[in-house]
Amino acid sequence: MKPLGPIPPGFEAIDGELAIGDTPVSDLVGRVGRTPLFVYSRERIARRFAELRAAMPGRLKINYAIKANSFAPLLEYVSSLADGLDIASGGELEMVRATGFHLSRVSFAGPGKRDEELEAAIAAGVTLNLESENEAERALAIAERLGETPRFAVRVNPDFELKGSGMKMGGGAKPFGVDAERVPALIQSIIAAGCDFRGLHIFTGSQALSVDAVIDMQAKVLDCADRLAREAGVILPKLNMGGGFGIPYFPGDEPLDIGAVGAALEDRFETLPETLSQAELFIELGRYLVGEAGVYLTRIVDRKDSYGETYLVTDGGLHHQLAASGNFGTVVRRNYPVAIASRFEAEPDEIVNVVGCLCTPLDRLADKAHLPRAQAGDIVAVFCAGAYGASASPSAFLGQGPAIEMLI
Ligand SMILES: *Cc1c(COP(=O)(O)O)cnc(C)c1O
């Protein structure tokens, strides 16, 4: 047997079935007429924002990194709760534009921004988080041609990383950001070129559950920003401190203690150096805001045995849930939280493998899981499906097409 990840708290059964909000999953599936289906809960997202705001210093602003989930109704809802949005492509800019969100509160990071993307962002008043000196030059030339004053922040590749992070994005050679030691000179040159300087962006990694690692990272980010600003001789109007707040996906994972993170930050904010005392301070989060608000529902199509093991074959799989299959940045495959949604209250009584319908051995949703006995027709729930599910999976693979998405 292999353990399953922890089901996020607060999911209840109605008449023996998993309910999301107050609605049993069979009703949700009935509304759209088919599986696979992603269901995202407004109520869960709202609660998550409220808890986070209560834990963090009032001064701290919260941005949503839309790459976690850009389903239009969800994006529109989250943008009503977030202080700003972080995008990483021209395509995401168009998604944000469609929500009517104020584009002056959007920042655009990401290496390899094309000229058309730079142009669209500058024309819209979006802040560009510059990833290189070359990008700064290209963006300045485009702004000049457009007759616009571009809003620039500099993304720093810091000389430290987020410890224990699932995906490291700082520390050593990286395609992201400008190496810290070259940042002061770049700040000076873009200011001299007449940009509207919007400060720094320092993102060091994702999916941290260790409170010590997050507190340590945030302290280093503030120190680093201060040092670079002093070297450049500027006061920072804004600092995006990155994010990295993780959620429990796997057996043994414990939720991040945001109360402790908030208290440490509160302390730091009381003694900010002059370079940061006027700055708008942001964190940027993706999965923490929406990950646990989503459930992926897929129906069992076949139940079969092979050499002593049982397989529940579903109509979903890695083409919608690459991360749950273990193929999105994980080294050792572990089980996500998975349940038989249509028998949510039944006792586990067999060890089964839950797999997808794709003709590849990579397509696994749960290995050797202890679950209630289920048959063809039963619905499987994969939790923690609100981030990097639909937006980060190869839905065209094997001609399967996308899952339905629904915000309730
Ligand atoms: C992906 C990304 C995020 C969001 O990461 P999560 O782990 O979903 O919180 C935030 N900022 C940047 C720069 C990113 O690339």
UniProtKB/TrEMBL annotation:
InterPro entries with a match to the protein in the record: Ala_racemase/Decarboxylase_C, DCO2ase_PEP1, De-COase2_CS, De-COase2_N, Orn/DAP/Arg_de-COase, PLP-binding_barrel
Cofactor (UniProt): pyridoxal 5'-phosphate
Where does the source fall among the domains of life? Bacteria
Which positions bear N6-(pyridoxal phosphate)lysine? 67
Query: Pfam families annotated for this entry?
Result: Orn_Arg_deC_N
- GO annotations under biological process? lysine biosynthetic process via diaminopimelate
What's this protein's name?
Answer: Pyridoxal-dependent decarboxylase, exosortase A system-associated
What UniProt keywords apply to this chain's record, in alphabetical order? Pyridoxal phosphate
Q: Which organism is it from?
A: Erythrobacter aureus
Task: Give GO terms: molecular function aspect only.
Answer: diaminopimelate decarboxylase activity
Catalytic center residues: 359 (proton donor)
Upper lineage? Bacteria, Pseudomonadati, Pseudomonadota, Alphaproteobacteria, Sphingomonadales
Question: Domain named Orn/DAP/Arg decarboxylase 2 N-terminal: which ranges?
Answer: 43-290
